[in-house]
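## retry 2 of 3
previous attempt timed out at serialization; input unchanged, resubmitting
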Amino acid sequence: MLIREAKKNEFLLLKKQRLASYKIYKEKLSSKQWAMLETHLSSDINHQPGVEVFVAEMDGQIVGSVALFPADSKSYAGTSQAIECPEIRMLAVNPDFRSHGIGKLLVEHCIDISKIRKQKFIGLYTGCFMKHAIKLYEKMGFERISSLDFSPLDDGVFVKAFRFYL
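## retry succeeded, writing output
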């Protein structure tokens, strides 16, 4: 398995792969919630300066991706707030390659980079309905920071905050 930086000409493929990866949540969400998630996954927010996108490649095929946002980069769309630590976002694994440790390898890669850069911690957010992702993050040693949780549509569906101390 090769973890490498994504090439610009791969970004459209990565968007499609993210949408395919997250499609399992479509039935768990209201149409409004799914539309918001789909818009986020399809956005070009990972094209801003300093954001690194990494892919997992197996036998020449991209099987997963993740974006690593640097500390002090723009927060989420619609806000002007900067994030205080590097953040892992848009972790996606091709549905045909799940349960092969690809997500874990991509997260570990982001952790390793953050350690090299002497960061104190790395953060991430995940939907409360993403049970498998939450299990992975907890198993890897991420801690919940419930004070940073939020509900984008103020409808009881929360985005949970996690932090890994380096």
